[in-house]
User: Fold this.
Amino acid sequence: MNINLTLIGQSISFLFFVWFSYKFVWGYIRTAMDEREKQIADGLDAADRAGRDLELAQEKATKQLREAKAEAATIIDAANKRASQIVEEAKDVARTEGERLKAAAEAQIEQDVNRAKEQLRSQVAKLALVGAEKVLEASIDESVHKDMVDKLAASL
Amino acid sequence: MAGESQSTVGYIQHHLTNLTYGKLPAGYERLDESGHVHEVLSQDTWTLAHSSVEAAAMGFMAIHVDSMLWSIGLGFLFLVIFARIAKRAHSGVPRGAQNLLEMIVGFIDQTVKDGFHHKNAMIAPMALTIFTWILLMNTMDLVPVDWIPAFMAWVTGNPHFFFKVVPTTDPNVTLGMGFTVFGLMVYFTIAKKGFMGFVKELTLHPFHSPKWYVNILLVPINFALEAISWISKPISLGLRLFGNMYAGEMIFILIATMFGAGLVLGIFAGVLQWAWAVFHILVITLQAFVFMVLTIVYMATAHQVEEEDQFH
Assistant:
């Protein structure tokens, strides 16, 4: 229990150990710990950011999907409209063409009928004349009865 | 275990005496065990003390070999291990020893940050050294009191070989650390506030008057109060640790004296020793922590500059 040089020895070793731990322990271990703390903080930050990014991307994707759907619907609508329009147009064209063809055919028929009638008329007149000539060869004078025969032919 | 030739008092005294190496003055009469003069020194002699009386006669020029051996040995032990771990420390996933060291360092760092708000890179390593070192020295108290002394007696072949294994039961060790902390306090106070700042702190505080002639009268009172408050810090620091550890060691020794007193008392002593050791774990840790925290607080006071303003 005597106070002696041990006191000074202990003081010196204490100071030396403080210096030693400052120089060879504290710095290294603190550096490693600070570095890890920073890495963890960075990692958490990155995770946060990634989460936010993911949310944004999802939102964007949903929006694009919605837009695409709307666009597709418009396109289908337009196509439907256009198709019915084309059908209508085609119907119209067909109808007019049909009417035109019908009219032309009717005109042709009428013309043909008229021509046939003319021919027939002239033929009939001729035939009648020939027949009458044959029947009446002797009795009929062409010059006298021509008017009558013509009237007959015209009435056919 | 107490030898048959030793009385209980002798046993306790033997356990409380350090292995002392020092200078015996010329003309000192060395006694042998039976109390006869065995040798008269013709000149100043550096030697190992053979009894506590001789150790006391050596005065200040002596050193406790066992205290120094254990304190420096334990200090080197933990610092070399720590330095090895720290050198290999990496910022990846920490494993094993690095984990342990990081736990201690993190705990110390937090304590320092809570109590010390100034810029000084030395304070945290100092707190680490104080805590770990004192903790280790205190832990030597848990080694059964006779193991190491008996081993040393066997090694040296001298049954009366003094060997104390707990450095913190030596007031030299605890006061040595206390006064070193005191020295650092004075150093940092002067470094931060200048020598005049230090003088002002000692003389113009706590009583202060705006009138200079009153102040002159107050200076001696202030100085007396401040000097007591300053000097009490290292002494209380050292003696608190010493007292706690010495008392704990004393109880271990007292319990150990019962081992020689029959089977029933021996078993009772074993149970008591175990119980006291368990309780002592708390004391060991607490005293190391208290020493560290008080050092941090004292260092923080030494760095505090703002308070100085009121003295102008």
About this structure: The two ends of chain A are 171 Å apart (CA to CA). Helices of chain A lie at 6-136, 142-155.
